[in-house]
Fold:
Amino acid sequence: MEVEYMTEDESNRVKSYIVGAGYNITSLAKAINMSREMLSNRISGKVDFGRTEMNKIATVLKSSPTEIFLENKLLKT
Structure:
């Protein structure tokens, strides 16, 4: 059984933040010094994001990690 670290809705929310900030997966990966494949695996939920990675992404996208990655999870609790 394969573990999913992000739901499809969460993944889509992250993608929308990326596009809204004028990036795509390739350009964001370059901006945070990560391989495109690694970032893609994290966004698709195959691999979990680390806190440092979330912070780097949020900084580049001019947002907060909570807003990008956790907004829906906080609303559900």
